[in-house]
Amino acid sequence: MDFLFSDNAAGVKPSAIREILKHSSEPGMIPFSAGNPAGEAFPVADIARITNEILKKEPVAALQYSVTEGFMPLREKLADYMGKKHGVVKDFDKIIITAGAQQVMNLTAKALCNRGDTIVCENPSFVGSLNAFRSMGAVLKGVDMLPDGPDLDQLEEIFKTDKKVRFFYTIPNFQNPTGLTMSLEKRKAVYALAVKYNIPILEDNPYGDTRFKGEELPCIKSFDECGLVVYAGTFSKVLSPGMRVGFMIGHSTLVDKVVALKQTQDVHTNILSQKIAYDFMTKCDYEAHLKMLKDIYRRKAALCMSEFDKYFEGKIERTSPEGGLFAWCTLPESVDMLSFVNEALKLKVAVVPGTAFLPDESAKCSCFRINYSTPSDEQIIEGMKKLAQAGEKFKW
Amino acid sequence: MDFLFSDNAAGVKPSAIREILKHSSEPGMIPFSAGNPAGEAFPVADIARITNEILKKEPVAALQYSVTEGFMPLREKLADYMGKKHGVVKDFDKIIITAGAQQVMNLTAKALCNRGDTIVCENPSFVGSLNAFRSMGAVLKGVDMLPDGPDLDQLEEIFKTDKKVRFFYTIPNFQNPTGLTMSLEKRKAVYALAVKYNIPILEDNPYGDTRFKGEELPCIKSFDECGLVVYAGTFSKVLSPGMRVGFMIGHSTLVDKVVALKQTQDVHTNILSQKIAYDFMTKCDYEAHLKMLKDIYRRKAALCMSEFDKYFEGKIERTSPEGGLFAWCTLPESVDMLSFVNEALKLKVAVVPGTAFLPDESAKCSCFRINYSTPSDEQIIEGMKKLAQAGEKFKW
After folding, report:
1. Which end of chain A is more exposed for a tag (fewer CB within 10 A), N or C?
2. Is A17 a residue whose pLDDT tops 70?
3. What pTM did the predictor assign?
């Protein structure tokens, strides 16, 4: 049976990371390629207790249909939390609970983007979001990532010359895949450009609450005076990704449309998990949990970076993440990235080829992404040693 | 802030049912308008016990990222169950776990339908699916529902003359909103037409396992020899709708594409709920649960129909559902349907105006939908009395 796929669907392929991830689950493989939060950071005892209580006290409400906008007490709690901590909920804003932040990218693009319209993104950027945009038939235009965030000249040039730009997608904190953080100045400048050209910003902040080093910086959304910034948040990195609970904060006009679209997509987000998230925020010590989680990531990142430097200092450039799960490594010109990644795979070490994160996947790339949250300490130590062995085949 | 919405999104509005449902939640309102499974049919003790066990035994796996295709043991169990019970999994088929059956409609339309393409549906049909198709920019063409299913002449006429038909959407068992069931002959004839014109069928069977009267009929998918039939199933009506766990069975070529699309939408379905569904199917007495559930619906449907007939026999025609949650009522020409529904609302009885379910919402309609699973027995008795009072304003 041959199916005639829609134009939008025809262009969508399983993410390149998936192929690598298949290798990652092979026995003995060291998974620097994954993007999983550390299992030891899940508050499993609290979640088990809370869940048990919910299913005892209000089983029918926890299992019945619910509203598309999301569990009202959770929305109110998030408005309060995000307002106090990040200054992001404005009078004109509304919150909708989504199936992870992934659904925010999907629905924002669906709401705003016709086939052939342009979405501007960082280059490189998170492949899951890029694929969501591709699935709407969007043309992706990348803006190179500099150490302090996206190149503003490139951004303005696109804003100025491309009349089909629908929004700019950015991950200001500990970006996936680079681990880079946008400076405060640049956040303000990006917002100013959005206002100047009247182009919305989709600010994706999955790692915001994982900063384990350096100073907190305000969200771009906190500058928003006219409803141009859409904020995507999630419990995936701070509580549990398997629950698939995220949220979107945006101007009510846009959120109302997104509610109508979400209704056609999955009716509402799993209600038991929304209640778990709510109870976790209100009945457990959320700040103590975040501190515990940051301690884990600070330690794992430091171990991974020092093991990396042991073998690769002066050979492979890398970023120094202050939060999140990833670092970005740049090989010298003399080493072919895909050959290096494949050599590593042969030695049972998986990293993700940088090409997976490019708006234009066919562009040249000498980078790869490593993750330090998934492998165990032993795997990090062993994995870096093997990565160094893989490197021995190449001339540096 | 004004947003320029995409062409597809611009046409999507919150479902008309939602407006009625807002009234339904007003204090004292009798909710014949809802579509909720009866809360008393939820196996709450089993679910609480299973969930507790999962979070004790394998908390990290129940909270971590999972694969887009869905929890493998659940897919295998469903393949086994659906094969044995409904004969629906063919060699060329694959299963994907989705966020309810709603996501099957959304992703099938997304995979197959460009803006301006035609989707053929029953007239009337489930508004949630129609809105999913509308959100892809599909043109909906309705085929009138007869007592034994859709009008075959109309169906063939559309298949023959419209070259942009992408698939035919049908709910053969206890259809929402009519409660009607497609005859065996018609199931075969519909499949034969699909083969003749090489047009896929999307068979939505949310209520299949709720038959409380009459003989089981084979699914259209069970006749499928060439991969033309896509089957949508769900745990929403038999276990819990709030869990948002459904599934799609279809030709592997199509399911592979749907997997890639789902990945861009929500990465994967809530994994804890997938594990709950699996454990419920394998560790609890699933058949005994279905029997209990059917007993509840048989009783509630009988009560609702007899109370209805007490006041409306010879005045309002109604269908006689053998399963599912709904009956469809047709007012005489002399009574204006919307006036009747509004009179009922004034007396605190909510039913859904039939127009909500029409492919062409502006068409004339003298029908309304009633649900018997949500109201309590007392509410059913009181509600029908009030509905009769509302009717007193009209000439019959």
Report:
1. C
2. no
3. 0.97
